[in-house]
Amino acid sequence: MKPQGSLSVRGSVRRRLLLTLLGGVALVWLAAAAVTAWETRAETQELLDAHLAQSAALLAAQIGDEIDEVELEHVKTLHKYAHSVAFQIWQKGKKGEALLLHSPEAPPTRLSATKEGFSDVTVDGRSWRVFSLWDDEDKYLVQVGEATEARDHLAMEVLEKLVLPLVVALPLLGLLVWFGVGGALKPLNRIGTALAQRDPRYLAPLEGEVPREIAPMVERLNSLLERVQSSLESERRFTSDAAHELRTPLAALRTQLQVAQGAVAGGEREQAIAKAVAAGDRATRLVEQLLTLARLEHDAWKRQAETVDLHRLAAEALAEAAPTAARKDIALALEGEARLEVRGHAGLLAVLLRNLIDNALRYSPPQTEVGVSVRRADGAAVLEVQDQGPGIPAAERADALRRFHRLEGATESGSGLGLSIVARIAELHGARLELAEGAGGKGLKVGLRFAD
Known about the structure:
Elements: H1 13-62, E1 85-93, E2 96-102, E3 117-123, E4 126-134, E5 140-147, H2 148-184, H3 186-196, H4 215-262, H5 266-297, E6 306-309, H6 310-327, E7 331-336, E8 341-344, H7 346-363, E9 369-377, E10 380-386, H8 397-400, H9 418-428, E11 432-437, E12 444-449
Parallel strand pairs: 7-9
Antiparallel strand pairs: 1-2, 1-5, 3-4, 4-5, 6-8, 9-10, 10-12, 11-12
Helix pairs in contact: 1-2, 4-5, 5-9, 6-7, 7-9
């Protein structure tokens, strides 16, 4: 079964490079051969035409009274192209022109009707390139011709000589490219083999020399491995700490239930049940905070970002905390602009406000006030929650934002997740979180400044 999200393997880099390079070389070579053959043919035509004209001129200069006694029938053929060259000498007379002398390859009729210069003719189905020339006395007509098939054959031989190296070179080039690309891809194969042989828990960066072209990919892969390792270590610490924190309220719940089960007096039983309920509430709150933190880690909120009114969220959070504040005789106050909008996730910002207000109520003594302020300062939205409790010493404020960290000497029960959740939500929204002393040096003031 193919795993979900697996890559689809299509084609081969080696084969693609081979076809691209060989195809490109072949096309360029053939184009160059065609141009060279065309230019060579043109130059050869001019050279052969010059040879025809020169031969005609030499024959015309050698014409004498003994010309009719020259015998050419038994002249040996000394070159393979000799049968493609012919000449005729015609004498002008009273009864017309008479053929005095011709080569064995020449036809019995005039090669060309043209009496001067070059011409292209067809005699008995054979094409000729002919040069005609009269002697100085205008008595003899010399015609020297060359069969065009010889010229075409010569051009084809030139083209074959140009293409033949390509036929030999392409397979050799193909082998060089095949093994060369294979050698160049060895680092990728090595990386793939190293990854395949790794234990899933071994996420150390890849090491060794790699080509410059794949260095960015390896760097990003190492960065990914580092992030995955950091995430797994964070999850392991989170799970371990969460298990440790849950063990305490669950153990207390079990103990109190056992006390209630064995109690004889009604008052003792009621007291044990009340403590068991408190331990259950603590475990419930811890589980809720753990689930919130897990959701933050996966950044699922980003798909649901919207415009949020901080004033309305603060009013709703204060209304929800009002019963708790009333039981502890703590006043709640909301100050600032009636409508202050930011871009973010309404649910997460509500969690942030609930955690801040809940922490403030936990550590504030009776007959004090917990205040929430929403305002705009220097173009940025600012949210502040202030209490009149013991506060946090300046040296411990950074540690207070870590998960499961509880201040020394804290008397209130808690999991140490409240401020860490606040810090994470602030980070996801690009807000700057600050812990400071409250008004008059009393209590704690938590401020968030959202990006402009």
